[in-house]
Structures are given as structure tokens and as C-alpha cells.
Amino acid sequence: MAATLEIRNLHASVDGDESLILRGVDLTVKEGEIHALMGPNGSGKSTLANVLMGNPAYEVQAGAVLLDDADVLEMEPDERSRAGLFLAFQYPVAIPGVTVANFLRHAINARMKAEDPESKGISIPKFARMMRQKMTQLHIDHNFAGRYLNEGFSGGEKKRAEVLQMAVLEPRIAVLDETDSGLDIDALRIVADGVNSLTGPSMGALVITHYQRMLNYIKPDFVHVMYDGRLVESGGPELAHELEEKGYEWIREKHEAMTQALV
Ligand code: ADP
Ligand code: MG
Q1: How far apart are the first and last CA of the chain?
Q2: Which numbered ligand comes closest to the C-alpha of 38?
Q3: Does ligand 1 lie within 6 Å of residue 29's CB atom?
Q4: Which of 159, 162, 198, 214 could form a disulfide with 190 if both were Cys (CB 3.0 to 4.6 A apart)?
């Protein structure tokens, strides 16, 4: 059965604050589908990503998140990861003295041990084979595995490490929150190539981005626009182009007209 992430009527706030940031988000992402989530700054896109991954800084006030009918909101962040959810780090940290390969092997072993406490983890030859295969698939230079994680990495190299992590963990649904702080074209391409090459029969993706330019490289099947904590528009790739041309102002106007009609 295709993995399905179902977000139903999700309401969320910052922990310890009643005022809602997410005000009823409905969205379903299936394996094999690429969804783009766009929207003006401050509309709640990163909050959604954080809630999906169980960041304790946020509190769910209502609604549900299901992964294949399992209650994601009841899971700890590491359980979510094991269940097949992946969230690309927005701000990856440097880990001095730990290579990219060691970091990834540790991540795999942690997952194997969580599933089976008796597990001895992945064998070195098997891991090496897997790394070679993934790096080839993603057009990443094999020397990259021996670099110290994020130490002196360029923006593009950080993205490479992130995409490689995604490839190795083989999530069923990946959530990528791209910061609005300018990723250069190389970095955008790395993320986009990774998503394009990994999505397919076995992964679905929710790609969060403020700018249309990311979607020059990732071809979404569906585009959604968040405004004031709700998805107010959904459509195909043409919606992203419409936003590129017209900006977000028409969304604001349309939404405000709708809100007034309700009062
Ligand atoms: P986006 O990613 O669409 O730009 P965010 O989800 O980051 O939007 O933010 C939505 C709103 O919630 C903003 O008004 C922001 O200031 C507020 N917000 C988000 N996270 C926090 C937080 N940890 N503490 C306080 N306010 C927050
Ligand atoms: Mg954001």
C-alpha cells in the first residue's frame, strides 16, 4: 500500500501561547507525489513542518496527523523518523570530528537498534556499498563521505549532506523546509535533483518554499498556498507560475474578501 500522510484540520500554536498559528490545515501527501507548499512569510509553513516532526516548541490544539492510519502526533520525533517521515534540517549543525559517513552509519544503526535491541547494526561493507550506490545515484563525489559533517561546508555542501541523509534513511514521506534566506542556484539544484531522483514509487515529498524558483527544478504534482495558517488555494504547477507573475497580493485580497463575506 502506498504510504499516505494525512493532515486533518490541524490547529497549532507556540507552546504556552493560545494564539493559533495553524488554523485548520488539511493536506494529504502520498508516496510518489510531490507537493509544493508556498505562501507569504509568516503564514505558518515552517510551523507546519515543525509540528509534523514533533518539535516541542509547538503545541497541537486540534486536528490529527496520520501516517498510514497511525497517529503521528502520539509519536516521539525518533519514532516518526522510523515510521518513515523525514524532515530536512533547516539549520544543520557542524559536528567536529564526525565524518558524513560515520554520521549516517550511526543514524542507520540507531534506527536498527530501536527496531531490534539485539541488532548489531549495519556491517561496514554493506554500508560502504549502500553509500556508493546512493552517492552515484545523487551525483555526489565519493570523497564527500570522508568530510567532517558541516565543518566549513558551503551552502551547497550542506544541502548535499542533507539529501544524502534523506537517500540513506529512505523515508516514505519527506518534508523539506527551504529557508527563505537565499539558497544559491547550485544548492537549489542539489535539493531538487535529490527530490526528483528519490521521489518515485517509494517516496512522497512536501516541499516548502517561499519562492517559485525552486519549482523551476522540482516539478510538483500539486501546489498549495498557505495564508494565515490555512491552505487557501490548491492547484497544479500552473498555480506556482501564477504566483510568480502576480505575487502573493491577490491571495491576500481574495482571502480578505472571503473573510469579510463571512462576517
Ligand atoms: P513561514 O514559515 O510561513 O514564514 P512561520 O511558521 O515561521 O511562517 O511563522 C508563522 C507565524 O508564527 C509568524 O508570525 C511567526 O512569528 C510565528 N512563530 C512561529 N514560530 C514561532 C516561535 N517559535 N515563537 C514565536 N512565534 C513563532
Ligand atoms: Mg519558514
Answers
A1: 44
A2: 1
A3: no
A4: 159
